[in-house]
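Batch job 17 of 40 flagged for manual review because the log was empty.
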Amino acid sequence: MTKPKIYTMSFAKVYPLYIAKAERKGRTKAEVDTIICWLTGYSPEELQERVDQQTDIENFFAEAPELHPFRSLIKGVICGVRVEDIEEETMKNIRYLDKLIDELAKGKTMEKILRVSS
């Protein structure tokens, strides 16, 4: 079975799209970085290294220091698919990040996005 093309795409290609989406809605790059670091366990410096190194998306998630245990609390539909129904781990993590950025763009508080009260 062939891997989806998104797996081999550089994270550096989608990262500015996440930032642009957030900034269009009055949110910040710092908030995007906080979300990515929360989800993956990368420090801000490690995140920037991954962007600079053009790490592909599959390895970006596979090599993440510690995927957040509360990520399973992320529910809902993204790109017409229920996040909680996705079985393949890399795709699930991609969609978790997409969902978190959507929540940011929709004006949710960082506390809710990061599942702090859970």
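Reviewer: the log was empty due to a logging misconfiguration, but the result itself is present. The longest strand covers residues 77-78. Unflagging and moving on to job 18.
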